[in-house]
Design goal:
The structure is a homodimer. The first copy, chain A, is built from eleven helices and no strands. By secondary structure, chain A is mostly helical. In chain A, α4 packs across α6, α5 runs antiparallel to α8 and α9 packs across α10. The interface between A and B is large, with 55 and 55 residues.
DNA sequence: GTCTATAGGCGGATAGAC
DNA sequence: GTCTATCCGCCTATAGAC
């Protein structure tokens, strides 16, 4: 019962867990989240289906693990894209994050569908997914925070009717940003995923051809809508 | 072999077809499109599963029929919302169409997921779905066309890099509108569905509370982004 | 057009041996 | 932890009687 034995056991467990999730991601691509099945994963790994239950107590637990991994993978990609232009102007960094999200989505379409597509019927994501899910939003918020600090942030117009909600959102999400900016940021965040989802899910078929250029321009407009200055 | 007999037969067929689609929509809500099964529909209707094949040759054909119905239901709703403010200013009509789309989506979440959510794995929508899918887009285009005719339409900025694509899109979608407007319209169209999808699929959970107000303001900004004047 | 019967698969989950 | 065996359910699709 040495700590080495413990470590070896724990390591083996992690390796099998990783293999299960990897096979599950392949199944996600082939069959979709709704049809993710422990049996099929077991078959692919050459394990007995009953052995899976030692790693994931149920199909939904496996799904939850995949969702958190996907959010984290996206968060990593977005943070890396941001890091690559860390010294640049906020508007440039905003665009870099958005393009990082798009690039990740194009490279991981099924994981994107898992986290931003239609909900899986009968499955409800637990609160444990929230921290990973919030990472991209935090990144965009931080960019705006820096712009504000450098006095590079304009206040978008805010109609009177939306002010109470904007103030509530600001208090929750970014108390140091003007409510005008926070409301616009949340809208831009949703709109960003509209652009990506349409490209990924085929709605741009025979409508938009030069999608990279189209996207770059669109996120530039979104940057402007939240109060960032145009890139020179 | 009177025409009456023919009519009765045809009528019965339509009625059964409608009942099948109705039951299938209930199954869509309960299990999702990926698990739509002819057998479960047959069970609900008290029919033998083999009888279904007289109406839909395969599961995918039933799915296609449901998709076309959903696009048409949405198209009807959007056109009705537009018709209710037919005499108003274009910006008002734009907003009405967008709110009509949102209202329909909130009332038919599973059908919305079917047409704008993640693709159903293994299913590829045939070209026959295109006309129904295009209806909302045509409506938005027509609103902008009228605004253009009344000289109420500004030209949004268009960076040089996007001009070729914008001109291509304009030639395809609306040759009588400026490329600047068409490019902005396509982006706004995708962004609209981003806003609706986030609300519907739970991403606004604990982020946006007063969603109707938030949405109304956001589509107002979208209207402005395509060149429509602000509502007075 | 509808039925029964059938072929040949799939799934989640558990019990109990090793 | 992994296995076999098992329970009980599900599915698409076809054949052939009525």
């Amino acid at each position: 019962m040495s700590s080495t034995a413990h470590g070896a056991r724990a390591r083996a467990r992690l390796e099998v867990t990783a293999a299960i999730k990897e096979a599950a991601r392949r199944q996600l691509a082939a069959e979709g989240a709704a049809k993710l099945s422990l049996r099929a994963v077991a078959r692919e790994l050459g394990m007995a289906s009953s052995a899976m239950y030692r790693y994931f107590p149920s199909r939904d637990d496996l799904l939850t693990a995949l969702i958190i991994d996907a959010y984290d993978s996206l968060g990593d990609a977005a943070e890396a894209a941001h890091g690559a232009v860390a010294g640049a102007a906020p508007a440039r960094r905003w665009t870099a994050v958005c393009e990082g999200v798009r690039d990740w989505a194009l490279g991981h379409p099924h994981e994107y569908a898992l986290i931003y597509g239609s909900p899986v019927p009968g499955y409800s994501a637990p609160e444990t997914t929230v921290p990973a899910a919030a990472r991209v939003g935090f990144l965009l918020r931080d960019v705006l925070r820096d712009a504000q600090r450098d006095s590079e942030l304009a206040k978008p117009p805010l109609p009177a009717g939306l002010r109470p909600e904007a103030e509530r959102m600001a208090a929750d999400l970014a108390p140091d940003l003007p409510p005008e900016v926070v409301a616009a940021m949340v809208a831009a965040w949703a709109e960003l995923y509209g652009l990506i989802g349409f490209e990924l899910f085929g709605q741009f078929h025979r409508v938009v051809e030069d999608r990279a250029t189209f996207f770059r321009h669109a996120v530039g407009r979104l940057a402007h809508s939240v109060g960032l200055p145009a890139l020179t």
